[in-house]
Write a structure and sequence with these properties.
Blueprint (H helix, E strand, L loop, with lengths): L7 H13 L2 E6 L15 H10 L13 H6 L1 H16 L5 H22 L7 H7 L10 H5 L1 E6 L3
Antiparallel strand pairs: 1-2
Length: 155
């Protein structure tokens, strides 16, 4: 007679948690949304990077909208990831589905940050060209390109 406990459920729990750890959430401008519908020399990903970090020549100041959003909302996202871990470990959600929910919220927060700032004001020449003093928004292509991607590590 075998007196060992049945660890099937524990093993299933560990497998679900390990599966969750195989995924990453990437938020920004995915390749599928990088193209622009105008004559710009830069694509949306390049425009995002230059504005996020500032230009190397100093003409465009840093206007962080991705990193600042993540920093400002880190406690919110940590709570959400705790809920994801719980739902996945209980078998209520598949890892990718649970992470998509988080990705949607982070993407929405980044878009909100672009719309509301605060950011360093545009230069007078930029205001004249755009006919607006709204940093990061001209025709709306950058904000529309913000999305998330769930990636399985190693793929």
């Amino acid at each position: 007679m075998d007196n060992r406990p049945d660890l099937t459920k524990v093993n299933e729990l560990f497998a679900r948690i390990l599966e969750l750890g195989k995924y990453d959430i990437a938020v920004g401008v995915p390749a599928s949304k990088s193209a622009r519908g105008d004559e710009s020399e830069l694509n949306n990903a390049q425009i995002a990077a230059v504005n996020e970090l500032g230009s190397t020549d100093g003409r465009i100041p840093e206007r962080s909208f991705i990193r600042s959003t993540l920093t400002e909302n880190r406690n919110k996202y940590a709570r959400m990831m705790g809920q994801v871990a719980r739902r996945v470990s209980e078998g209520q959600d598949a890892p990718a589905i649970a992470l998509h929910r988080v990705g949607f919220i982070i993407s929405a927060d980044v878009k909100h940050k672009i719309a509301t700032g605060p950011f360093i004001p545009n230069a007078p020449s930029t205001i004249k060209r755009k006919k607006s003093n709204k940093p990061l928004i001209d025709k709306g292509q950058l904000v529309q390109s913000i999305d998330h991607v769930i990636k399985k590590r190693g793929t």
